Amino acid sequence: MVSISPLLSVRHLLALSLALNVSLMLSIILEKAKLEERVKGCPMKLEHTNISPFTGDGEITDNDETIINLDHGNPTMYEKYWQQMGDRTTVVISGWQFTSYFSDIKNLCWFLEPELAEEIIRLHRVVGNAITNGYHIVIGTGSSQLFQAALYALSSDATEPVSVVSAAPYYSSYPVITDCLKSGLYKWEGDARAFDKTGPYIELVTSPNNPDGFVRQSVVNRSGGILIHDFAYYWPQYTPITAPADYDLMLFTISKSSGHAGMRIGWALVKDEIVARKMVKYIEVNTIGVSKDSQLRASKVLRVISDGSGLAHRFEGETFFGFSHRDMELRWYLLREAVNKSEIFSLPDFTPEFCNYWSRVFEPLPAFAWLKCGDGIEDCETFLRGHKIWTRSGRYFGVSPSFVRISMLDRDPTFNLFVKRLSRIRSPE
């Protein structure tokens, strides 16, 4: 047997590590150069906006009086893509269709349309962001209803209210939804990092996180805990798809995957059959199922996305994820330019990672910007409102009001107006 000197082995390892790091840096530099080249030829500049947010045409003259409302995550940026698709996602429903409550009585989730179930499985397989084998699919009226159904299912046998926690900054609707009904089954307990109570608990893990965009793991590490993973933003336009998610209970929504928030369709992938049945029971009692009309539309939209996302089409601009990813790259580039010009704001820095879907390295491009005000501005939301920019304060997310969450998903004219105005804001002093 040939023996290899330890010194030689270490040298080889160091050389390999150096080569990998150089390759990673070259990939990042190349992608940045490509983005800058696209920006040069793109009409979306800080100095110009070409379309009115009200009429759809004409040029916006920013007189600092127009209210820019970026408080909500309304994904209207996707409208232009679906307009280009024409009738490819048009659905015609005859008057006699969908008169029954039931979709598939043999399925655990009896109100789930088989066509939608097939397209959900297919999309996850194409994107590679979640395992579906061995899971039950539970459909809901948006992921908000599924979140409530999950809370019920995971706490229905508890003898005392189960604590519900999430690491701050957490999604601002979690406390509201959890305590809305003042249920005796569960109770909001705030920041998971500060949680020190004994007994059972449910931890909400949103990854990428809303509002700050970082990839998350659970932080409460002890017995008696149950995890709910919210993967609303684990799609290739927002973040590198590093591996398929494989957790006990995972939530997804069409509102952030395709931009069709008005459909009110979400789905959960649930391993435990008993938990899945309890979630179905909650939705049955709550709304007696989910709109079949919306399910049919959702299945058509997901089919169009998957059809354009095969290996032969992933890098073409007309595919949904290609369009969305490029738009998000450009928006984040422009926002960082505006922040640099202003000099009183800051944004998070993200670590680039290799994306299995795109087969390249890129930095996360979150659906929300987690902006911090400097120069002694303690209430960033109020400060920006003075410039007629509406945002959501960090206090709703369990942190300092010096932070605000800003939607990156509005229509082009609104976003263009926002970055243009933000770039002109200077210190109040």
From TrEMBL:
SUPFAM superfamilies (alphabetical): PLP-dependent transferases
Domain of life: Eukaryota
Domain Alliinase C-terminal: residue ranges: 68-425
A Gene Ontology biological process term: amino acid metabolic process
Key words of the record: Aminotransferase, Membrane, Pyridoxal phosphate, Transferase, Transmembrane, Transmembrane helix
Residue stretches spanning the membrane: 12-30
Entry cofactors: pyridoxal 5'-phosphate
InterPro entries in alphabetical order: Alliinase_C, Alliinase_N_sf, Ethylene_sulfur-biosynth, PyrdxlP-dep_Trfase, PyrdxlP-dep_Trfase_major, PyrdxlP-dep_Trfase_small
GO MF, any single term: transaminase activity
The UniProt record lists the keyword Transmembrane: yes
Protein family: Belongs to the alliinase family.
Protein's UniProt name: Alliinase C-terminal domain-containing protein
Organism: Trapa incisa
